[in-house]
Amino acid sequence: MTSLSVADLLNGLICVLPLAVVYIGNISVDSSFCKLQALVLKVVQITKVMLLLALNFDRYIAVTRALRYHDILTPNRVYMGNAAIWIISCIASLTDAFVVKWEISMTYDAVMLCVFKVDVKEFLVWLDLVLLVILPLVVTIMIYIRLAAVARHHAAQIGVMPTRDGNHDNNQQRLALQNQAQKASKTTRVMTLVFTIACMPIVIAGLLASYIDFSDIPWVLNSFIIISFCSGLCNIIVYFCKNSVIRATSRAMVGAKLLPCQQLLTSSFTRVQKFFSRIRPGRNSQHTSELDSEVGVTASPPN
């Protein structure tokens, strides 16, 4: 989950912000910028797909192998898996930066777009569609079909489980862990669905661009690109809505660190109080003496 959050952060900081500066500021870009942009976009895209698949497999193991989950997925294996995903994504993304010849195309509305040559565009778009959309979607559907079957089997087991048995405690523990994993898999399911819905339009538009001229309606491709970038923002919303740990952490961060103006206002108000107490000593001393007398009367023992 942390690695996927890093990919979402890179998607916003390295991909979305530079593109916004280029399009809004009408800054001239060259071929090197196009290659760098293609490399980073492809790395983030492949990483997010592979991490979503890894999360789906993680939920599958948690449900089907609940008691052995921590033995199968050790911290070292998780770290090595995340590192392997990023390395594979970087290697697989080199094709878009160095194999493909990028050119700069100027549209009629003075928006500069990075496009690559037509002779290899169709092949790469089809490859992206198969490897980054269709294949992960099929694997994810198969995983959740299997999880649904396991959930039905567990529900049937709960109904026929004997109350006194030597394996009763182990079965109860396994069913509790599987139920917890089933609930956690809902978050991954929503994230996978959001990513598929967000990235499917840009892939389909890339396929249609091989047969249809989008030069007259460039806003279509731009809209699909914006939608695909919004998948990272949607993931953040999903994290907050579906994960209680992230909600508690976010509230703590907002209350303690992300609102320094609150502490600033509190300290400023305290200084203002001290300032007015200094410029009005008579009233404050009178008020203080009244308070002291009240305290003395209250504290004096009855006769």
From TrEMBL:
Topology in the lipid bilayer: Multi-pass membrane protein
Alphabetical list of Pfam families matching this protein: 7tm_1
Keywords: Cell membrane, G-protein coupled receptor, Membrane, Receptor, Transducer, Transmembrane, Transmembrane helix
Subcellular location: Cell membrane
InterPro entries: GPCR_Rhodpsn, GPCR_Rhodpsn_7TM, TAAR
Region: Disordered, residue numbers: 281-303
GO cellular component: plasma membrane
GO MF term (any one): G protein-coupled receptor activity
UniProt keyword Cell membrane, yes or no: yes
G-protein coupled receptors family 1 profile domain segment(s): 1-239
Annotated PROSITE patterns: G_PROTEIN_RECEP_F1_2
Residue stretches spanning the membrane: 9-27, 39-57, 78-100, 123-145, 190-212, 218-241
Designated name of the protein: Probable G-protein coupled receptor 52
Lineage: Eukaryota, Metazoa, Echinodermata, Eleutherozoa, Asterozoa
